[in-house]
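Deliverable D2.4 — example input (structure tokens):
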């Protein structure tokens, strides 16, 4: 059974969704009590939305795990702008919008950026935009996502790809991962593919990427949001990432249906990236009870990286300032 959040977090959550339901959602939304009532010195974690565009719903289970040690904010696409024809068609344009909103919400102090799934690539570009505004990123967090390098990773035609998939079969079959039985998944994918063939021409006219339709159940979302998701999907596929020299941690699920190669792709732009593997799959690791493992590991890593950043700042200021702070 999912543990209930603390009373203060429940109040903040009710207020959050009450506000969002009455007016267009802003790009940056406080997601835990520490963010709603900021404490001086606490690091801020900004969580960039997945392909759906809703950072709040993506990261709320994770936000509930943090107490006052970390302020957690959701970064999401403003709902009133999803209807704009070109909105979401450029990763860099989205990143500039989100970076400006983050600076407004958090004018000074340590910034940690996280992106789940498609949001990982967007978070990378947000990091570049923040750096251009004079802000430093203490840590870049990729959760089951990476920039796309379709021509530079193992393909299913390579036997090494299937060797990698086979290594994850035990995690498929292990209880407690939240994963459906493999045969059930394969049957569902087969039906989805058959249905996709019949709707391909119609969906092409609607400019909804066929692969996106296989990955996400689009019928759950309003038409304007579907179009935004399709634009963002195409933008991420076309996105050419720039090299990043800051700390990067890549969280990957143990139970996978394909070989994601997230770490391999991240190391093409950030050779210093490190990998942490957690129980669950692409979706379940972001929900109770598995998200608690992610939160504990991430909280420890944020504390270490932000402390290291403060030490670097003291060193740059010189011995006198360092001694005064000590």
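Example output (designed residues):
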């Amino acid at each position: 059974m999912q543990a209930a959040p603390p009373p203060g977090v429940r109040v903040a959550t009710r207020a959050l969704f009450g506000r969002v339901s009455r007016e267009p959602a802003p790009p940056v939304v406080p997601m835990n009590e520490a963010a709603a009532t900021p404490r001086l010195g606490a690091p801020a974690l900004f969580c960039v939305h997945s392909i759906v565009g809703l950072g709040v719903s993506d990261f709320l289970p994770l936000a509930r795990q943090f107490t006052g040690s970390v302020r957690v904010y959701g970064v999401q696409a403003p709902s009133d702008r999803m209807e704009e024809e070109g909105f979401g068609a450029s990763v860099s344009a989205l990143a500039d919008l989100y970076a400006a909103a983050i600076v407004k919400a958090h004018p000074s102090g340590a910034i940690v950026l996280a992106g789940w799934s498609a949001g990982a690539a967007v978070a990378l570009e947000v990091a570049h935009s923040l750096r251009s505004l004079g802000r430093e990123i203490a840590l870049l967090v990729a959760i089951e996502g990476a920039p796309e390098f379709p021509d530079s990773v193992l393909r299913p035609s390579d036997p090494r790809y299937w060797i990698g998939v086979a290594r994850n079969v035990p995690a498929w079959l292990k209880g407690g991962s939240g994963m459906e039985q493999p045969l059930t998944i394969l049957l569902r994918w087969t039906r989805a593919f058959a249905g996709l063939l019949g709707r391909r021409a119609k969906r092409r006219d609607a400019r909804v990427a066929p692969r996106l339709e296989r990955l996400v159940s689009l019928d759950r979302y309003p038409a304007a949001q579907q179009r935004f998701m399709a634009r963002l999907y195409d933008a991420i596929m076309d996105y050419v990432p720039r090299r990043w020299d800051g700390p990067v941690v890549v969280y990957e699920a143990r139970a996978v249906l394909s070989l994601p190669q997230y770490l391999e792709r991240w190391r093409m732009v950030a050779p210093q990236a490190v990998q942490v593997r957690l129980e669950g799959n692409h979706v379940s690791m972001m929900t109770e009870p598995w998200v608690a493992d992610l939160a504990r590991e991430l909280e420890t890593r944020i504390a270490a990286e932000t402390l290291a950043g403060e030490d670097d700042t003291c060193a740059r200021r010189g011995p006198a300032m360092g001694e005064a702070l000590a």
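The radius of gyration is 20 Å.
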